[in-house]
Amino acid sequence: MASGSMGWETSWYHDVMTKQTTVRLPDGLADDAEAVARVRGESVNKLIIDSLAAEIDRVRADESFTARAKKLLERDQEILDRLAK
Q: Do residues 6 and 56 make contact, with C-beta atoms less than 8 angstroms apart?
């Protein structure tokens, strides 16, 4: 079972509340995703969850990304603080 740094395993699908969303994929990417999932013996949903978790892990490890995210969050907090006055 795949496990990311987020502390959950992709097998939790039926054990916890999930958020449903719609993703529109270009035809070629959708076809490739279906083929990869079929070869792996898993659903496209699981492939997308695993891929998204891996990307989130990757950007969390990217110091440049996390610095930009921190700066944006600090700016958002400044705006919220100003509006709350």
A: yes
Distance from first CA to last CA of the chain, Å, rounded? 49
Range of the domain at 80: 24-84
**Four-residue CA torsion sign, 61, 65, 66, 69:** negative
Residue 80 has pLDDT above 80, yes or no: yes
Q: Is residue 15 part of a domain?
A: no
pTM above 0.70, yes or no: no
What does the alpha-carbon distance between residue 71 and residue 31 come to, in Å, rounded to a whole number?
Answer: 38
Q: Tell me how many domains the chain contains.
A: 1
